[in-house]
From TrEMBL:
Pfam families: LRR_1. It comes from the Eukaryota. It comes from Angomonas deanei. The lineage of its organism: Eukaryota, Discoba, Euglenozoa, Kinetoplastea, Metakinetoplastina. The chain crosses the membrane at residues 408-431. This is Uncharacterized protein.
Protein backbone atom coordinates (compact mmCIF):
# COMPACT_ATOMS: atom_id res chain seq x y z
CA UNK A 1 0.00 0.00 0.00
CA UNK A 2 2.96 2.28 -0.49
CA UNK A 3 1.13 4.20 -3.22
CA UNK A 4 -1.98 4.81 -1.14
CA UNK A 5 -2.82 8.52 -1.01
CA UNK A 6 -6.07 8.71 0.98
CA UNK A 7 -7.01 6.40 3.83
CA UNK A 8 -10.30 7.02 5.70
CA UNK A 9 -11.14 4.92 8.76
CA UNK A 10 -13.00 7.53 10.75
CA UNK A 11 -16.11 6.93 12.88
CA UNK A 12 -15.96 3.20 13.23
CA UNK A 13 -15.52 1.07 16.31
CA UNK A 14 -11.85 0.45 15.82
CA UNK A 15 -9.74 -0.30 18.88
CA UNK A 16 -6.09 -1.07 19.49
CA UNK A 17 -3.10 1.09 18.57
CA UNK A 18 -1.75 2.87 15.52
CA UNK A 19 0.67 0.54 13.67
CA UNK A 20 4.21 1.96 13.45
CA UNK A 21 4.51 -0.03 10.22
CA UNK A 22 2.23 2.38 8.41
CA UNK A 23 5.24 4.64 8.20
CA UNK A 24 5.93 2.96 4.86
CA UNK A 25 2.88 4.66 3.36
CA UNK A 26 4.99 7.60 2.31
CA UNK A 27 2.61 8.63 -0.48
CA UNK A 28 -0.28 9.26 1.92
CA UNK A 29 -1.63 12.80 1.77
CA UNK A 30 -4.86 12.27 3.69
CA UNK A 31 -5.16 9.95 6.72
CA UNK A 32 -8.26 10.01 8.92
CA UNK A 33 -8.73 7.63 11.86
CA UNK A 34 -10.81 9.94 14.07
CA UNK A 35 -13.93 8.97 16.02
CA UNK A 36 -12.84 5.51 17.11
CA UNK A 37 -11.66 3.86 20.33
CA UNK A 38 -7.99 3.71 19.49
CA UNK A 39 -5.46 3.77 22.34
CA UNK A 40 -1.72 3.86 22.84
CA UNK A 41 0.72 6.53 21.73
CA UNK A 42 1.29 8.40 18.50
CA UNK A 43 4.06 6.52 16.64
CA UNK A 44 7.24 8.59 16.19
CA UNK A 45 7.93 6.39 13.14
CA UNK A 46 5.22 8.17 11.21
CA UNK A 47 7.60 11.06 10.74
CA UNK A 48 8.40 9.46 7.37
CA UNK A 49 4.91 10.36 6.11
CA UNK A 50 6.21 13.70 4.94
CA UNK A 51 3.59 13.99 2.18
CA UNK A 52 0.65 14.19 4.61
CA UNK A 53 -1.61 17.22 4.13
CA UNK A 54 -4.50 16.11 6.34
CA UNK A 55 -3.96 14.05 9.50
CA UNK A 56 -6.97 13.40 11.72
CA UNK A 57 -6.46 11.33 14.88
CA UNK A 58 -8.93 13.20 17.10
CA UNK A 59 -11.72 11.78 19.28
CA UNK A 60 -9.92 8.63 20.35
CA UNK A 61 -8.19 7.59 23.56
CA UNK A 62 -4.58 8.25 22.65
CA UNK A 63 -2.16 9.00 25.48
CA UNK A 64 1.48 9.93 25.81
CA UNK A 65 3.28 12.94 24.37
CA UNK A 66 3.28 14.65 21.00
CA UNK A 67 6.17 13.20 18.96
CA UNK A 68 8.78 15.85 18.25
CA UNK A 69 9.80 13.68 15.27
CA UNK A 70 6.65 14.71 13.44
CA UNK A 71 8.27 18.06 12.72
CA UNK A 72 9.13 16.55 9.31
CA UNK A 73 5.47 16.66 8.22
CA UNK A 74 6.03 20.09 6.73
CA UNK A 75 3.18 19.80 4.22
CA UNK A 76 0.51 19.37 6.89
CA UNK A 77 -2.33 21.84 6.56
CA UNK A 78 -5.12 20.28 8.63
CA UNK A 79 -3.90 18.57 11.82
CA UNK A 80 -6.53 17.31 14.27
CA UNK A 81 -5.35 15.92 17.63
CA UNK A 82 -8.14 17.08 19.92
CA UNK A 83 -10.27 15.10 22.38
CA UNK A 84 -7.78 12.49 23.48
CA UNK A 85 -5.74 11.91 26.64
CA UNK A 86 -2.47 13.30 25.34
CA UNK A 87 -0.01 14.76 27.85
CA UNK A 88 3.33 16.53 27.87
CA UNK A 89 4.17 19.82 26.18
CA UNK A 90 3.77 21.41 22.78
CA UNK A 91 7.01 20.62 20.86
CA UNK A 92 8.86 23.82 19.92
CA UNK A 93 10.25 21.82 16.98
CA UNK A 94 6.83 21.79 15.36
CA UNK A 95 7.54 25.37 14.36
CA UNK A 96 8.65 23.80 11.06
CA UNK A 97 5.02 23.01 10.24
CA UNK A 98 4.61 26.35 8.51
CA UNK A 99 1.95 25.15 6.05
CA UNK A 100 -0.58 24.53 8.84
CA UNK A 101 -3.88 26.36 8.51
CA UNK A 102 -5.88 24.34 11.05
CA UNK A 103 -4.30 22.94 14.25
CA UNK A 104 -6.41 21.60 17.09
CA UNK A 105 -4.92 20.07 20.24
CA UNK A 106 -7.77 21.02 22.56
CA UNK A 107 -9.37 18.73 25.16
CA UNK A 108 -6.29 16.87 26.22
CA UNK A 109 -4.06 16.97 29.30
CA UNK A 110 -1.23 18.98 27.79
CA UNK A 111 0.93 21.14 30.05
CA UNK A 112 3.79 23.61 29.82
CA UNK A 113 3.87 26.95 28.04
CA UNK A 114 2.83 28.13 24.60
CA UNK A 115 6.03 27.97 22.50
CA UNK A 116 7.17 31.37 21.18
CA UNK A 117 8.79 29.41 18.33
CA UNK A 118 5.38 28.70 16.88
CA UNK A 119 5.28 32.28 15.64
CA UNK A 120 6.55 30.78 12.36
CA UNK A 121 3.11 29.20 11.82
CA UNK A 122 1.94 32.38 10.12
CA UNK A 123 -0.50 30.55 7.84
CA UNK A 124 -2.73 29.39 10.71
CA UNK A 125 -6.41 30.23 10.37
CA UNK A 126 -7.73 28.06 13.21
CA UNK A 127 -5.70 27.42 16.37
CA UNK A 128 -7.43 25.56 19.19
CA UNK A 129 -5.45 24.82 22.37
CA UNK A 130 -8.29 25.17 24.88
CA UNK A 131 -9.25 22.81 27.71
CA UNK A 132 -5.76 21.73 28.64
CA UNK A 133 -3.43 22.68 31.50
CA UNK A 134 -1.20 25.21 29.77
CA UNK A 135 0.48 27.79 31.99
CA UNK A 136 2.73 30.79 31.55
CA UNK A 137 2.13 33.95 29.56
CA UNK A 138 0.77 34.66 26.11
CA UNK A 139 3.74 34.90 23.70
CA UNK A 140 4.01 38.32 22.12
CA UNK A 141 5.86 36.59 19.26
CA UNK A 142 2.58 35.12 18.07
CA UNK A 143 1.70 38.54 16.67
CA UNK A 144 2.86 37.11 13.33
CA UNK A 145 -0.25 34.90 13.15
CA UNK A 146 -2.11 37.59 11.27
CA UNK A 147 -4.36 35.17 9.38
CA UNK A 148 -5.93 33.69 12.50
CA UNK A 149 -9.72 33.75 12.42
CA UNK A 150 -10.65 31.31 15.18
CA UNK A 151 -8.35 31.37 18.23
CA UNK A 152 -9.29 29.28 21.26
CA UNK A 153 -7.20 29.59 24.45
CA UNK A 154 -9.86 29.21 27.10
CA UNK A 155 -9.93 26.88 30.10
CA UNK A 156 -6.25 26.65 30.88
CA UNK A 157 -4.00 28.07 33.60
CA UNK A 158 -2.49 30.91 31.59
CA UNK A 159 -1.18 33.96 33.44
CA UNK A 160 0.19 37.40 32.67
CA UNK A 161 -1.14 40.26 30.60
CA UNK A 162 -2.86 40.47 27.24
CA UNK A 163 -0.22 41.44 24.64
CA UNK A 164 -1.02 44.73 22.89
CA UNK A 165 1.14 43.37 20.05
CA UNK A 166 -1.60 40.92 19.16
CA UNK A 167 -3.48 43.86 17.65
CA UNK A 168 -1.97 42.63 14.38
CA UNK A 169 -4.45 39.72 14.42
CA UNK A 170 -6.99 41.75 12.48
CA UNK A 171 -8.59 38.74 10.77
CA UNK A 172 -9.90 37.29 14.06
CA UNK A 173 -13.62 36.59 14.16
CA UNK A 174 -13.79 34.26 17.19
CA UNK A 175 -11.38 34.89 20.09
CA UNK A 176 -11.78 33.11 23.42
CA UNK A 177 -9.41 33.07 26.40
CA UNK A 178 -11.90 32.78 29.26
CA UNK A 179 -11.32 30.71 32.41
CA UNK A 180 -7.64 31.38 32.92
CA UNK A 181 -5.67 33.45 35.42
CA UNK A 182 -4.87 36.36 33.13
CA UNK A 183 -4.29 39.80 34.63
CA UNK A 184 -3.80 43.35 33.42
CA UNK A 185 -6.11 45.41 31.24
CA UNK A 186 -7.93 45.12 27.94
CA UNK A 187 -5.50 46.63 25.41
CA UNK A 188 -6.97 49.64 23.59
CA UNK A 189 -4.77 48.56 20.67
CA UNK A 190 -7.03 45.57 20.11
CA UNK A 191 -9.58 47.98 18.66
CA UNK A 192 -8.00 47.00 15.34
CA UNK A 193 -9.73 43.60 15.60
CA UNK A 194 -12.74 44.94 13.75
CA UNK A 195 -13.72 41.57 12.25
CA UNK A 196 -14.49 40.07 15.69
CA UNK A 197 -17.97 38.64 16.14
CA UNK A 198 -17.24 36.52 19.24
CA UNK A 199 -15.10 37.71 22.17
CA UNK A 200 -14.94 35.84 25.47
CA UNK A 201 -12.60 36.79 28.33
CA UNK A 202 -14.75 35.93 31.36
CA UNK A 203 -13.45 34.21 34.50
CA UNK A 204 -10.05 35.85 34.66
CA UNK A 205 -8.53 38.52 36.91
CA UNK A 206 -8.53 41.35 34.41
CA UNK A 207 -8.63 44.91 35.75
CA UNK A 208 -8.82 48.47 34.50
CA UNK A 209 -11.56 50.10 32.49
CA UNK A 210 -13.49 49.10 29.40
CA UNK A 211 -11.64 50.77 26.50
CA UNK A 212 -13.75 53.35 24.65
CA UNK A 213 -11.55 52.60 21.64
CA UNK A 214 -13.24 49.23 21.26
CA UNK A 215 -16.25 51.03 19.80
CA UNK A 216 -14.68 50.17 16.45
CA UNK A 217 -15.58 46.49 17.00
CA UNK A 218 -18.94 46.98 15.36
CA UNK A 219 -19.21 43.39 14.10
CA UNK A 220 -19.42 41.93 17.63
CA UNK A 221 -22.39 39.65 18.25
CA UNK A 222 -21.36 38.11 21.57
CA UNK A 223 -19.21 40.03 24.08
CA UNK A 224 -18.55 38.34 27.41
CA UNK A 225 -16.28 40.11 29.94
CA UNK A 226 -18.03 39.05 33.15
CA UNK A 227 -16.43 37.66 36.32
CA UNK A 228 -13.34 39.88 36.25
CA UNK A 229 -12.30 42.98 38.21
CA UNK A 230 -13.11 45.71 35.71
CA UNK A 231 -13.85 49.16 37.13
CA UNK A 232 -14.85 52.56 35.83
CA UNK A 233 -17.89 53.54 33.83
CA UNK A 234 -19.67 52.02 30.87
CA UNK A 235 -18.29 53.68 27.71
CA UNK A 236 -20.98 55.59 25.85
CA UNK A 237 -18.86 55.08 22.74
CA UNK A 238 -19.84 51.40 22.72
CA UNK A 239 -23.21 52.48 21.36
CA UNK A 240 -21.67 51.65 17.99
CA UNK A 241 -21.87 47.91 18.78
CA UNK A 242 -25.33 47.68 17.28
CA UNK A 243 -25.04 43.99 16.31
CA UNK A 244 -24.57 42.75 19.87
CA UNK A 245 -26.95 39.97 20.86
CA UNK A 246 -25.40 38.60 24.06
CA UNK A 247 -23.62 41.15 26.26
CA UNK A 248 -22.25 39.94 29.59
CA UNK A 249 -20.72 42.52 31.96
CA UNK A 250 -21.83 41.15 35.29
CA UNK A 251 -19.79 40.48 38.43
CA UNK A 252 -17.20 43.22 38.10
CA UNK A 253 -16.59 46.53 39.92
CA UNK A 254 -18.18 48.80 37.30
CA UNK A 255 -19.50 52.18 38.45
CA UNK A 256 -21.38 55.13 37.00
CA UNK A 257 -24.72 55.20 35.25
CA UNK A 258 -26.45 53.20 32.54
CA UNK A 259 -25.79 55.05 29.25
CA UNK A 260 -29.03 56.10 27.53
CA UNK A 261 -26.96 56.05 24.33
CA UNK A 262 -26.82 52.26 24.46
CA UNK A 263 -30.43 52.31 23.32
CA UNK A 264 -28.93 51.83 19.85
CA UNK A 265 -28.15 48.19 20.76
CA UNK A 266 -31.48 47.06 19.41
CA UNK A 267 -30.30 43.52 18.51
CA UNK A 268 -29.62 42.59 22.16
CA UNK A 269 -31.38 39.47 23.41
CA UNK A 270 -29.38 38.70 26.58
CA UNK A 271 -27.98 41.63 28.59
CA UNK A 272 -26.46 41.07 32.03
CA UNK A 273 -25.04 43.87 34.20
CA UNK A 274 -25.83 42.49 37.63
CA UNK A 275 -23.42 42.42 40.58
CA UNK A 276 -21.60 45.68 39.99
CA UNK A 277 -21.62 49.12 41.63
CA UNK A 278 -23.75 50.91 39.04
CA UNK A 279 -25.94 53.82 40.11
CA UNK A 280 -28.31 56.34 38.58
CA UNK A 281 -31.67 55.63 37.02
CA UNK A 282 -33.08 53.15 34.53
CA UNK A 283 -32.97 54.84 31.09
CA UNK A 284 -36.42 55.06 29.48
CA UNK A 285 -34.55 55.12 26.17
CA UNK A 286 -33.69 51.44 26.56
CA UNK A 287 -37.28 50.66 25.62
CA UNK A 288 -35.93 50.55 22.05
CA UNK A 289 -34.25 47.22 22.91
CA UNK A 290 -37.31 45.37 21.71
CA UNK A 291 -35.42 42.11 20.99
CA UNK A 292 -34.42 41.71 24.65
CA UNK A 293 -35.34 38.42 26.25
CA UNK A 294 -33.27 38.68 29.45
CA UNK A 295 -32.20 41.83 31.32
CA UNK A 296 -30.31 41.35 34.59
CA UNK A 297 -29.55 44.47 36.68
CA UNK A 298 -29.73 43.06 40.21
CA UNK A 299 -27.22 43.77 42.98
CA UNK A 300 -26.31 47.32 42.01
CA UNK A 301 -27.14 50.73 43.47
CA UNK A 302 -29.68 51.80 40.87
CA UNK A 303 -32.28 54.34 41.94
CA UNK A 304 -35.27 56.15 40.49
CA UNK A 305 -38.49 54.58 39.33
CA UNK A 306 -39.39 51.81 36.91
CA UNK A 307 -39.78 53.36 33.43
CA UNK A 308 -43.31 52.78 32.10
CA UNK A 309 -41.70 52.89 28.65
CA UNK A 310 -40.05 49.52 29.26
CA UNK A 311 -43.42 47.81 28.96
CA UNK A 312 -42.94 48.07 25.18
CA UNK A 313 -40.41 45.20 25.22
CA UNK A 314 -42.61 42.44 23.76
CA UNK A 315 -39.96 39.69 23.85
CA UNK A 316 -38.78 40.23 27.41
CA UNK A 317 -38.93 37.03 29.44
CA UNK A 318 -36.84 37.88 32.52
CA UNK A 319 -36.30 41.29 34.15
CA UNK A 320 -34.19 41.14 37.30
CA UNK A 321 -33.77 44.29 39.44
CA UNK A 322 -33.34 42.66 42.84
CA UNK A 323 -31.44 44.45 45.62
CA UNK A 324 -31.15 47.99 44.30
CA UNK A 325 -32.38 51.36 45.57
CA UNK A 326 -35.42 51.75 43.34
CA UNK A 327 -38.36 53.81 44.55
CA UNK A 328 -41.89 54.55 43.49
CA UNK A 329 -44.48 52.01 42.49
CA UNK A 330 -44.78 49.33 39.84
CA UNK A 331 -46.27 50.91 36.70
CA UNK A 332 -49.75 49.66 35.85
CA UNK A 333 -48.42 48.71 32.41
CA UNK A 334 -46.15 46.01 33.91
CA UNK A 335 -48.53 43.16 33.15
CA UNK A 336 -48.58 40.17 30.86
CA UNK A 337 -50.70 42.18 28.43
CA UNK A 338 -47.74 44.43 27.63
CA UNK A 339 -45.10 41.77 28.38
CA UNK A 340 -46.60 38.80 26.50
CA UNK A 341 -43.40 36.74 26.87
CA UNK A 342 -42.64 37.61 30.49
CA UNK A 343 -41.87 34.85 33.00
CA UNK A 344 -40.41 36.79 35.91
CA UNK A 345 -39.90 40.37 37.14
CA UNK A 346 -37.59 40.44 40.17
CA UNK A 347 -38.01 43.46 42.46
CA UNK A 348 -37.18 42.06 45.90
CA UNK A 349 -35.14 44.09 48.38
CA UNK A 350 -35.87 47.52 46.93
CA UNK A 351 -36.97 48.90 50.30
CA UNK A 352 -37.91 52.36 49.01
CA UNK A 353 -40.54 51.07 46.62
CA UNK A 354 -44.15 51.70 47.52
CA UNK A 355 -47.63 50.75 46.42
CA UNK A 356 -48.90 47.32 45.45
CA UNK A 357 -48.16 44.76 42.80
CA UNK A 358 -50.62 44.95 39.89
CA UNK A 359 -53.68 42.84 40.84
CA UNK A 360 -53.13 40.45 37.94
CA UNK A 361 -49.84 39.28 39.50
CA UNK A 362 -51.79 37.63 42.33
CA UNK A 363 -53.53 35.23 39.98
CA UNK A 364 -51.89 31.78 40.31
CA UNK A 365 -52.51 31.25 36.61
CA UNK A 366 -50.64 34.44 35.70
CA UNK A 367 -47.06 34.19 34.43
CA UNK A 368 -46.02 36.80 37.01
CA UNK A 369 -47.47 34.94 39.98
CA UNK A 370 -43.97 33.67 40.83
CA UNK A 371 -42.78 37.28 40.92
CA UNK A 372 -45.56 38.07 43.39
CA UNK A 373 -44.57 35.12 45.59
CA UNK A 374 -40.91 36.20 45.44
CA UNK A 375 -41.92 39.60 46.81
CA UNK A 376 -44.13 38.03 49.45
CA UNK A 377 -41.38 35.67 50.57
CA UNK A 378 -38.97 38.59 50.88
CA UNK A 379 -41.50 40.40 53.14
CA UNK A 380 -41.84 43.21 50.64
CA UNK A 381 -44.63 45.70 51.39
CA UNK A 382 -45.50 45.56 47.68
CA UNK A 383 -47.06 42.15 48.27
CA UNK A 384 -48.61 42.84 51.68
CA UNK A 385 -52.33 43.09 52.34
CA UNK A 386 -51.83 46.63 53.70
CA UNK A 387 -49.98 48.01 50.69
CA UNK A 388 -50.80 51.53 49.50
CA UNK A 389 -52.92 51.09 46.39
CA UNK A 390 -52.97 54.86 45.78
CA UNK A 391 -49.28 54.87 44.85
CA UNK A 392 -48.27 56.92 41.81
CA UNK A 393 -45.18 56.64 39.67
CA UNK A 394 -43.39 59.42 41.51
CA UNK A 395 -44.01 58.05 44.98
CA UNK A 396 -40.93 57.54 47.09
CA UNK A 397 -40.41 56.26 50.57
CA UNK A 398 -37.46 57.27 52.68
CA UNK A 399 -36.68 55.20 55.75
CA UNK A 400 -39.57 54.85 58.18
CA UNK A 401 -41.13 58.22 57.52
CA UNK A 402 -42.81 57.24 54.28
CA UNK A 403 -42.14 60.77 52.99
CA UNK A 404 -40.32 61.67 49.83
CA UNK A 405 -37.20 63.80 49.85
CA UNK A 406 -39.12 66.65 48.21
CA UNK A 407 -41.81 66.47 50.90
CA UNK A 408 -39.24 66.57 53.68
CA UNK A 409 -37.55 69.61 52.15
CA UNK A 410 -40.93 71.35 51.84
CA UNK A 411 -41.77 70.69 55.48
CA UNK A 412 -38.40 72.01 56.65
CA UNK A 413 -38.79 75.21 54.61
CA UNK A 414 -42.35 75.75 55.89
CA UNK A 415 -41.23 75.29 59.50
CA UNK A 416 -38.41 77.77 59.00
CA UNK A 417 -40.84 80.37 57.62
CA UNK A 418 -43.20 79.89 60.58
CA UNK A 419 -40.38 80.21 63.12
CA UNK A 420 -39.07 83.39 61.49
CA UNK A 421 -42.60 84.82 61.38
CA UNK A 422 -43.12 84.14 65.08
CA UNK A 423 -39.75 85.71 65.87
CA UNK A 424 -40.62 88.92 64.02
CA UNK A 425 -44.04 89.03 65.72
CA UNK A 426 -42.48 88.71 69.18
CA UNK A 427 -40.00 91.50 68.40
CA UNK A 428 -42.83 93.67 67.10
CA UNK A 429 -45.00 93.15 70.19
CA UNK A 430 -42.10 93.86 72.55
CA UNK A 431 -41.29 97.10 70.75
CA UNK A 432 -44.92 98.11 70.70
CA UNK A 433 -45.41 97.52 74.43
CA UNK A 434 -42.27 99.50 75.23
CA UNK A 435 -43.36 102.40 73.03
CA UNK A 436 -46.88 102.47 74.49
CA UNK A 437 -45.45 102.53 77.99
CA UNK A 438 -43.24 105.49 77.12
CA UNK A 439 -46.21 107.33 75.60
CA UNK A 440 -48.34 106.73 78.63
CA UNK A 441 -45.59 107.97 80.91
CA UNK A 442 -45.18 111.09 78.77
CA UNK A 443 -48.95 111.69 78.62
CA UNK A 444 -49.17 111.35 82.35
CA UNK A 445 -46.63 114.12 82.74
CA UNK A 446 -48.39 116.31 80.19
CA UNK A 447 -51.75 115.68 81.82
CA UNK A 448 -50.42 116.60 85.22
CA UNK A 449 -48.97 119.81 83.87
CA UNK A 450 -52.13 120.62 82.04
CA UNK A 451 -54.17 119.80 85.07
CA UNK A 452 -52.22 122.39 86.99
CA UNK A 453 -52.62 124.85 84.16
CA UNK A 454 -56.28 123.96 83.86
CA UNK A 455 -56.77 124.45 87.52
CA UNK A 456 -55.19 127.87 87.23
CA UNK A 457 -57.21 128.56 84.09
CA UNK A 458 -60.37 127.36 85.72
CA UNK A 459 -59.70 129.60 88.57
CA UNK A 460 -59.08 132.43 86.16
CA UNK A 461 -62.13 131.52 84.10
CA UNK A 462 -64.20 131.27 87.15
CA UNK A 463 -63.08 134.61 87.95
CA UNK A 464 -63.84 135.62 84.33
CA UNK A 465 -67.12 133.71 84.32
CA UNK A 466 -66.51 130.82 81.68
CA UNK A 467 -65.01 127.16 81.37
CA UNK A 468 -64.85 126.54 77.53
CA UNK A 469 -61.02 126.50 77.36
CA UNK A 470 -60.77 123.68 79.86
CA UNK A 471 -63.13 121.44 77.77
CA UNK A 472 -61.12 122.15 74.57
CA UNK A 473 -57.81 121.06 76.13
CA UNK A 474 -59.22 117.69 77.32
CA UNK A 475 -60.68 116.99 73.87
CA UNK A 476 -57.31 117.58 72.18
CA UNK A 477 -55.53 115.09 74.51
CA UNK A 478 -58.11 112.31 73.92
CA UNK A 479 -57.75 112.65 70.16
CA UNK A 480 -53.89 112.38 70.20
CA UNK A 481 -53.94 109.24 72.47
CA UNK A 482 -56.36 107.57 70.11
CA UNK A 483 -53.98 108.27 67.18
CA UNK A 484 -51.02 106.51 68.85
CA UNK A 485 -53.16 103.44 69.60
CA UNK A 486 -54.16 103.20 65.92
CA UNK A 487 -50.49 103.47 64.76
CA UNK A 488 -49.08 100.61 66.89
Amino acid sequence: MTKLQSFYLRVNRLSGTLPPGWSSMTALTDLRVSGNQLTGTLPPEWSSMAALVNLWVHENEFSGSLPTQWKTMTKLQNFQLHTNQLSGTLPPGWSSLTALTDLRVNRNQLTGTLPPEWSSMAALVNLWVHENKFSGSLPTQWKTMTKLQNFQLHTNQLTGALPPEWSSMTALTDFRFSTNQLTGTLPPEWSSMTALTEFYCQYNQLTGTLPPEWSSMTALVNLWVQENKFSGSLPTQWRMMTKLQSFQLHTNHLTGTLPPEWSSMTALTDFQLHTNLLNGTLPPEWSSMTALQSLYLSLNQLSGTLPPEWSSMPNLEVLRLVNNKLRGCIPESYTTVNFPSIRRIGLEYNVNMAGCVPPSWKDPQNALYSSYTDLRNSNSTLASENCDSSCTAGTERSGKSGLSTASIIGIVVACAVVVLGLLFLIIFLCCRRKHNKDDRDAEGSVTSSRASVAESSDAANSLAGGDDEGVQSQGSHDSRYSYYNDLY
